[in-house]
Amino acid sequence: MDYNIGNHAKGSAGDSGCTEKEGDRMQENDALQIQLRKNQDTLKIVGLGVMVFGVWSIVKTILYTTAQWSSITEEIVVPEANETIAKMVYIFMIAVTMVVEIAVRLYIGRSAIAEGRGERRRPGYIAVAFLIAFLGLALTASAIVIPGIHIELNLDLLASLFVEITSAVITFEMCWSAVRVRKLRRQLAERE
Which portions of the chain are predicted below pLDDT 50? Predict the structure, then answer.
């Protein structure tokens, strides 16, 4: 009876009749397969996270608009007769922005999930995701560090900043995993 623990369960290079070099290549492919599966799983999870943060963005916009409606309407400077039209235009612009935001995040999230499942996707969603994450971080940073603007750091603002930063980190993680999945697929294809 052979009690050699090594790669006996999978078959070592000597057991399968292949050379040592081929056995090493098989082990490297196994390691690449494990990395690929790990990155695909990450891609599926963070793709879902991107979509969830899209929903959060809509909820945040609605809550902010309803809570700050009186100060927003005071800032709209139009003649009295056109005030209702100006408010309707403002509401329409916010609604369009929310629809575009959720559509883009759904596109990014669904593409990431599909690529995580092994489907081929065009790389455009990765570029859009990177742009969204970068702009989110830039806007968040500008809200804090613009000189001459005094912002009161209350609990609501801190929570919102935390969520925005988390959303950007998840989106960057999605971009990294997508690029890594593509690279690993190419490496595996070259070795076969």
Answer: 1-15
- Rounded distance between C-alpha atoms, residue 15 and residue 116, angstroms: 34
> Strand runs (DSSP E) across 64-167, as ranges?
none
Domain assignment present for 7: no
Residue 155 in any domain: the answer is yes
Q: Is residue 6 part of a domain?
A: no
Is residue 123 one of the residues assigned to a domain?
yes
Residue 96 CA, distance from chain mean position: 22
Give the domain range for residue 76. 20-191
Cα–Cα distance, 110 to 9 (Å, whole number)? 38
Cα gap 153→124, rounded to integer Å? 37
**With the C-alpha atoms ordered 24, 30, 35, 36, is the resulting torsion angle positive or negative?**
positive
Q: What is the pLDDT of residues 165-191, one digit of tens each?
A: 888 899 999 999 999 999 999 888 887
User: Residue type at 151?
Assistant: I
By the 8 A CB rule, do 188 and 33 touch?
yes
Q: Considering all CA atoms of the chain, what is the largest pairwise distance in Å, rounded to the nearest integer? A: 96
- Report the number of distinct structural domains present in the chain: 1
d(CA 32, CA 27): 9
Burial string for 22-37 (b: 16+ CB within 10 Å, else e) reads ebeebeeeeebeebbe
